[in-house]
Amino acid sequence: MNYPQKGSRLYLFSIVLVAVLGGLLFGYDTAVISGAEKGLQAFFLGAKDFVYTDTIHGITSSSALLGCIIGAAISGFFASYFGRKRSLAIAGIFFFLSALGSYYPEFMFFDYGTPTKSLLFAFNFYRILGGVGVGLASAICPMYIAEVAPSNLRGTLVSWNQFAIIFGQLVVYFVNFLILGEHTQPVIEKIGETLYRVSAESDVWTIQTGWRYMFGSEAIVAGLFTVLVCLVPESPRYLALTGRDEKALGVLSHINGYDKAREILAQIKSTVEVKSEKLFSFGIMVIFVGVMLSVFQQAVGINAVLYYAPRIFESMNMGNPMMQTVIMGIVNITFTLVAVFSVEKLGRKPLLIWGSLGMAIGAFGVAVSNLVDGIAPIIPVVSIMVYSASFMFSWGPICWVLIAEIFPNTIRSQAVAIAVAFQWIFNFIVSSTFVPMYNMHGLGMGDKFGHMFAYALYGIICVIAAWFVASLVPETKGKTLEDMTNLWRNRNKKS
């Protein structure tokens, strides 16, 4: 076989570009609910055979996350037995079927436009199916990118996956905004502690049709991703793990050139002599650090803000909430680029620590705003922007970078699956509890108590996250994936 003597950055960037489309779908699928959830709530409030409560709406809005937990949990099995490439193609199929099913959950079994308990179960099934795709993609996309990228570009290229996630969220904010057009979100009135009704003045099109178009729009991107992922090569480290050294050398040569590829392959082979090392072969600390990175990325509360952004901005009385959501998406994109272009210069740990502290300032700013009567609405809006922007240059991309590179080669598939599963478990916990917590009453403050409590809690968690990173997380800047094997093996011997 003739191997290229020189590597091609164009080849590397083209296959990474296809992989990050999975990240874009991840962002698109998880954020589409932000524009659709109010129309969806109004639709199911019309059901005659059950009462659609706040709690049920919180679970329905977050049901895709149950699928994410499942997808992440099985991603290790899929990545190990089907390979990274085929697993991503399977994820794409799940995305596609979920988009069509969420658009038309009545398919074959139910009357169109008639909300029932059975239809609610069907809708949630399709959202969970898409969540399985997100769970697979969230674990395997950064893993794939990390395994094809040279060590000096790995942090940057994996960060582009987070950029794609945020870009996918921004795209769906725009798509939701354009779909809504001249129509308006339904007006929902509270008639009890946990009961609501739809105002007669509400836009019927938004209740019956608008949310369907929002979910269905994802099918276009999902179809494109599924086709393109079939054209990229398998990860060279997976090929080496499964004994296909010639193919691994071919992929590495196209990326790095033949001489460098032989050197990299030798390093890979030196760390994969035992293919079936047990999960805790390198000690419990590496698993603990990976899991806690995932837990903190969600426990800081960012996805509660992203999923319910229009509702939050509406409560602040600052004009068109959908437009402010788009503005927040632009801010998020901008600050994600800060991480993309600085992660290899500044390192992973400094970005995480400063981001945690910035998020704490923003969260406490929103909390304090709800304690002071008559405060200008611009203050909590700016505080939310600071909170969100700080996440985007730190925990957003850097957590994925570390999860993709921190684990030794022989346990990476299993360890990433566990870490990402914990991420989605805490994502579900945070997202499904946000609406009830945000609407809590207490201390004579009305629902402002819930607003204050939620953000104060997130701010405290941000401070704890900064301490965790400073104390326990190793810096991985400039290290090869094979270096991580030696780092954790040495740490385990010392302990």
How would you portray this structure in words?
The chain has 495 residues and is an all-alpha fold. 75% of the residues lie in helices and 1% in strands. The chain is built from 20 helices and two strands. It has helices at 9-45, 54-81, 83-103, 117-148, 154-180, 204-216, 218-229, 236-241, 245-256, 258-271, 284-299, 302-307, 309-315, 321-346, 348-369, 378-392, 395-405, 412-438, 448-472, 481-494, and strands at residues 188-190, 196-198. The chain has a two-stranded antiparallel sheet with strand order 1-2. A hairpin with a 5-residue loop joins β1 (188-190) and β2 (196-198).
Mean pLDDT: 83
Largest sheet: 2 strands, antiparallel
How large is the radius of gyration?
23 Å
In percent terms, what proportion of residues is strand? Answer: under 5%
Helix content bin = over 70%
Poorly predicted runs are none
Strand order of the largest sheet: 1-2
Determine the N-to-C terminus distance.
Answer: 46 Å
Structural class estimated from helices and strands: mainly alpha
- Tell how many strands the DSSP assignment holds: 2
Count of helix runs? 20
The general outline is: globular
- Helix-strand topology string: HHHHHEEHHHHHHHHHHHHHHH
Q: What distinguishing features does this structure have?
A:
495 residues, mainly alpha, two-stranded antiparallel sheet, 20 helices, 75% helix, 1% strand
